Amino acid sequence: MTYLAKPRLHHPSLTVNKVGYTRRDYEGKNSTLCAGCGHDSISAAIIQACWELDIEPHRVAKLSGIGCSSKTPDYFLGASHGFNTVHGRMPSVLTGANLANRSLLYLGISGDGDSASIGLGQFAHAMRRAVRMVYIVEDNGVYGLTKGQFSATADRGSRSKKGAINSDNPVDMIGMALQLGASYVARGFSGDKAQLVPLIKGAIGHGGAAFIDVISPCIAFNNHAGSTKCYDYVREHNEAMNRLDFITPRSEITTDYAPGEVVEVVQHDGRTLRLRKLHDGYDPTDRLAAMNHVQTHQARGEVVTGLLYVDPDASDLHAALNTSARPLNTLGNQELCPGAAELATLNAALRC
Amino acid sequence: MQPTDTANPAYFHKVVDCQWACPAHTPVPEYIRLIGQGRYSDAYMVNWVSNVFPGILGRTCDRPCEPACRRARVEQSNGEHPEPVAICRLKRVAADMKDDVSRRMPKVAPRNGKRIACVGAGPASLTVARDLAPLGYEVAVFDGEAKAGGFIRTQIPRFRLPESVIDEETGYILDLGVAFQSGQRIESMRALLAQGFDAVFVGCGAPRGRDLDLPGRHEAAQHIHIGIDWLASVSFGHITSIGKRVIVLGGGNTAMDCCRSARRLGGAEVKVIVRSGFDEMKASPWEKEDAQHEGIPIINFHVPKSFEHSDGKLTGLKFEVVRAVYDEHGRRSLVPTGEPEVLVECDDVLIAVGQENAFPWIERDSGIEFDQWGLPKLDKTTFQSTLPNVFFGGDAAFGPKNIITAVAHGHEAAVSIDRLLHGEDIRRRPDPMTNLLSTKMGIHEWSYDNDTSNDPRFKVPWAKAEMALANIRVEVELGFDAATAFKEASRCLNCDVQTVFSAPACIECDACVDICPMDCISFTINGDEPDLRKRLKAPALNLEQDLYVSGMLKTGRVMVKDEDVCLHCGLCAERCPTGAWDMQKFLLEPAQAGPMCRDARKDSRAPEVVA
Questions:
Q1: Nearest CA in chain A to B565
Q2: What is the ipTM of this complex?
Q3: What residues of chain B lie within 8 A of the CB of A190, using their CB?
Q4: How many angstroms separate the CA atoms of A320 and A208, rounded?
Q5: A23-321: what CATH class?
Q6: Alpha-carbon span B586 to A170, nearest angstrom
Q7: What is the pTM of this model?
Q8: Strands A238-240 and A303-310, bridge-based pairing
Q9: How many CB atoms lie within 10 A of CB A330?
């Protein structure tokens, strides 16, 4: 962490986006995380993505649970709505918020402890219900706040800072998200913003449950030889499936790609995800193939990254429940309490 | 790009923009920190060692440091008026608020038997005297005037520089056992050389003001004055009044001193009229502002044509109105607009259109050669003339410049003289003393204040206009008080506290990139410089400022830092988990005359280590 707040002075060339903000306007408070924490890089990536997408900060709700990762919403988007829930309960609070006000952009920030241990059930149900949200797990494989015990995502056989070997099998959050029906599944690495920022932008533009597992090394307790979540290991074993360019409908296509190198996925709001293939034959729109491919590579000890699966026709919980098209707080008395006649009609419809 | 060679002192020196720009390379951030700590005497001595006249320069310096100051670039698009730190006025604070420093002055070594003559008692000569006298040289300073200081005393009006300050600072030098031969103008170089001095330093300035030979010049001579001569007469009290309507011709700092002096001696309507455009005037921007502040208009693009007179009395000046035209090479020419000539009525004219060097006292067969412009042929680094034991410095060397340049010349000439008289090659110049030391005190504590101030530049308070204009001896600027000086000192970014990067320690976690408020740091694939400058997190468009490039990192990328607008806030180092970034204080002191400037340091007075 730094003791001083970041000076408000900025580079003379800093520009404003379409909604009139500089990138610096998307920052939050001073981070209190350890120096070099991967989570701070993820915060910076979220800031970058929101600035690039011209998102109005007051139209964002960021929710989190408990843990190092769950502290981070305080360090970005200082002008957005925030809710720090009970440990592991971010998904259900977010689900409720989303049902009440569907017009906000929901960022669920969680960690491997918050989502893979105490909140595993919450995570599973948010995914299977297709709550429209960006669910980011800042995954360092270790309980940092309690001084470095293995977390539920630590790989079997990996070594703790004190030398203990992990004998438990890891929770595979990517595998679970794929299986449970998440319609946008990706893995990034805090040390590679060029990959991570487009993944976050894609998730923000996605129409359903978007899940990103971000490997985020814990400098203090999990960045040593023998760890599978340290910078060196992840860099050596990083197997990127593709490179994502997120394209809004307005923007022009400027880069030339070799034929066959690119897959374009047009989502139903018209936004395009353009993927530069790094693996032949990998089709990120085929859920079963994606599960197979990811499992095969993971079994070889590779850290699979990139956009692993996307359903361009994703729908969400609101569509399934046929809810009000407007946020509840915009409904008036007449709509909330339509009167005795409406009730009688409804009751009549339910009688056999 | 190749990895930056930070072992070369020039690299980090250049990052300290102010020190790099200063002809004498005064370690500016070093003394500004001391002022911030209230250590005024220490701050004064840092200055004194380097620029010899802190009190004088703190009021009158041409301040090349301020246009170079990083603060002004940093404040671009961050504030309404980006402005540098008030370096010059902070220097004055050190001089005004110091305690008695006489006991800190150097001890004079026993005489070494060598005799040096300095011609003129201006800043260049006095610097040579100060550098050489403590080493044991017998230094004689000759000057035609009664008191030392040269142009500092005769040209700079008292309302900018009180005489007591000149007395004090010339006194420190003359008290080092320097023989001041006052009232002795040197009339013959040959006679001087015949006195058997081991070396002669000529620091006699550029004492001749340029004249304007226009129609009417001789007829109306009584009311036409050469600026620098007139200023000297004012300074000595020979002139105490001037006509009501005064025209000052010329756009340099001397013209500004002339018009402001005239304003105080009865000139109710003083105008400055210049040939060039306002922006191209040679005067420093702040001197122009000061003149305008006193109600003196500056009229530009007017070329004087003739002095109008009747009955031997000046009545006015005729001007041709011109405009600036630039050719394809950007060369300017002044072209008449075709408007009718303008008559400006006046009672007196002050001509301040430049100064010339004049060496009528140096016999042309003395062995000292001169070039086609009448300037001595000199070696640019040693200041040696074609007569090996004669050196030139200050305005006498390369034409009129300013005090701080004269001081810088004096230091270099003193090094040359010291080496020459020790039988060493004077073309070989001594390296500067440099030091690089970590400022880390704790996890996020540093031995400098890294909390960047957001204050805009503070204004120096002025004496009330009616008081200041009523008396030419009333100093206009009052100087900062201690509280304001502290706040102004806090605006300094501590550019001498360098961001030092260690590639082997870096794990490329991006923490520094994320925290850097100015987007200075990038990790990217290496390339050539023009390519890299475009690809950084914020484009590096200021080509004057270097890129700091590391060796190759584990991922095959390099760290590239654009030095341009770095705040030296140290947040990169606070965020760095491995100490790959460190904030290290860089101190550079140019070598001065003495044992340390010589190759054979056996006669060094530093205690010898006995094995």
A1: A11
A2: 0.91
A3: 509-510
A4: 11
A5: alpha beta
A6: 50
A7: 0.90
A8: parallel
A9: 10
